[in-house]
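Quick board copy: two proteins, each given as sequence then tokens.
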Amino acid sequence: MQRRAVVTGLGLITPCGIGVEPFRQAIDQGRSGIGPIKCFDASNLQTRFAGEVRDFDPIGALGRKEARRMDRFQQFAMVGAELAMEDAGLSGPPADPSRGAVIIGSSVAGLAAAQEEHTRALARGPGAIHPFFILQVLSNMAPSYVSIRWGFRGLNLAPNSACATGAHAIGEAARRIRSGEIDVALAGGAEAPLCMMAIGGFNQLRALSTRNDDPEGACRPFDAARDGFVMSEGAAIVVVEELDHARNRGARIYGEVAGYGTSADAYHVTAPAPEHRGGRECMEAALRDAGLSPSEIDYVNAHAAGTPTGDPLEVEAFRAVFGHRAASIPMSSTKSMTGHMLAAAGAAEAAVCLLAMQSGRIPPTINLTDPDPKSGVDHVPLVSRPAQIRTAVSNSFGFGGTNATLVLRAL
């Protein structure tokens, strides 16, 4: 019998809320998590707003000693994994710990720590560098800390595929479950990029919105007035589990990771390929893997981050894959609310799809007041709407032309 991979736990730390229910409510109600940057002085930057995670207490969650050893992205990963395990009703690894995997990625990892320690070393000398600095900047330390905490002794992996990282992590976990390699995985992404180097660097790429007078309205996917993406921090970690393993312990199941597709544009370091051929091939591969046709998809959560180049090309790829049905399948972007959580985005958006199946509501694209007239697609503007969702597609496309698509299905 074919092994199947399902999601049984969600650990969400986002600008729109911490935990499943606060996050779900914010998305359903179309609430933005974007605001002026408060975690550092951003007054000399072109972009002075972002999606910060409010009310996150790493010391309360991890203890002072443990929290001080870690960069913020590692703290997010640890607490996100804790929330996911609790939500799944798990208290430890599988009966055979070697069949438990941790696949958690980050794209900029400890960049904030590197900036801070560089400044300290210049001012006070190399002896002032934090003893755990090297561990704070290594992306693999996020899954390593989680593996140590939970005793998962199987695959331990820190993928980095930029904005596609979280989706790749979930897809790779599902693939290994279906192949029989593992039974349970903690998978997703964690990111803490809010520092001068990251925002200043993306400003130099002209990638970020500079709508400083209207932070909540700055992320405008599919809108004619979009001017770039909004950077955010957070983590999204999910428990992916073999179906019979989950049923045998009476687990609550959010849905199945039914399909996973990947591709590379092999074209340009930041711009999608013409006609977004990589995105098209990626969606087609995920549908084939799921054994579904475009006519069987009820909702698409777009990668769309609000960039003038990326959004239209994703729509073009969507229309190429879904043909005449493209005009009738809702395709929204929840980055309009969360901002772009980079490596955590794909996992957070997979969670959005699963929660939409549970709640029976299609999440909106907020700030969509002047739709791009060339789109011709239902982007669910401004407010959510009731609908039965049995199958959903979630797209994640990263710098360098790396692409991942997940197909989620209700059981």
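And the next:
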Amino acid sequence: MPSAGFTTLGCKVNQYETQRILDSFEEAGFSIVPFDAAADVYVINTCSVTSIAESKSRYAIRKASRLNPAAKIVVTGCAAQMARNKGEELEGADILVPNPEKLETLSYLFRAFPEFVRQAREAPAASPARVVGRTRATLKVQDGCSVFCSYCSIPYTRPVMQSRPYQDVFEEAKRLHEQGHGEIVLTGVLIGAYGPDTGSGGPDFEALVALLAEHSGVERIRISSIEMRQVTPRLIELLQARKVVPHLHIPLQSGDNGVLEDMNRPYTQEDYLNLCQKLNRAIPDLSLTTDILVGFPTETEGRFQSSAHVCEMARFLKAHVFRFSPRFGTPADAWGDPVGTDEKQRRARILSAITARTGEAHARRFVGRTLRVLVEGKHHASGVLEGLADNYLSVRFAGSPSLMRTFVTVRIDEMREGMLYGELASEKAGCDTPLMTV
């Protein structure tokens, strides 16, 4: 039986696609091994969103070469596509699979190295074991981006706007529910653009969410990331009615109007803060998370302070703060990289400190209240159980390991070192259990 190891860099879309590739290998008779083990084939799903992501992608190729110099290394994802766009090779890669064809990775391997066809045929086929591991499952519904933010390479590595047929999405959601996943995280590159115009053949995004919430059997529906212009009144109604959990990840990128214009982001600071206020009024226990870019070529110190101001006002639970790096072919690539590395790190630390403080203040509001929690595992150091509340708060509590992968109700007693701790109030929390009670 040939063996294969997999690793993923970057976004939840990549994570979903890696799982689909892994399933195809497993069904064909490959033994799946950890990426840091010796394998006959290594599959690396890469990212190119920043220079750091590209460096990590190249490191993963070198690591695979060291683990087994005789192994075949198959590379796909955005860094692989960017290399193809530039006419470059990725040193150490035996096969580069184009991003639009990454789910055909196994076919690329079989065509390049037919010996694996015979070896795989001689091995017993295995059924995908997707239920093992995570309690939450990622479900990709859409691919491609046509926004062309001036700093972003994604429209060049995922250029085709495509929505999955809603029947396929619905059937996969039901399978994930049957396999024991209590939550599905809907993901896409520009998820709010899901709809019939790009291939779904049926509902728009809001209608798809409602369909999944009502009829898939899955207890929690979460949206991985959505652009602020795609947070519609209909979507807010779904959050209010608990058709989707009260947590939204809305990328900010910058809080300064000048930088936003230079980034080709279609909103202003005022638009973003008004949306945050509207959401917090409509869904009082909502948690907001975000992405913020620091060190954009036109981000002066004064403009950076605008981002700090928005972080204070929006009161994010968490923020992914990343540093600008020029991306090949983007408009911002021609503007150079005038903000130094040390200055970018300083700005990132400031925003991270603000969001750590606002996140702790947000979480502290729930001390003395009860939360519905999906139990995800056991904390290694303390031995207590831990899980995730509907609104993305992490919770720890004492309980039996038999509660793994179930919903429970936990009364929050205290906040300690940034973590909520509580006591088990109920060993069953169904989908009709309120988010919290006083």
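Board note added afterward: Confidence is low (pLDDT under 50) at residues 126-133, 431-438.
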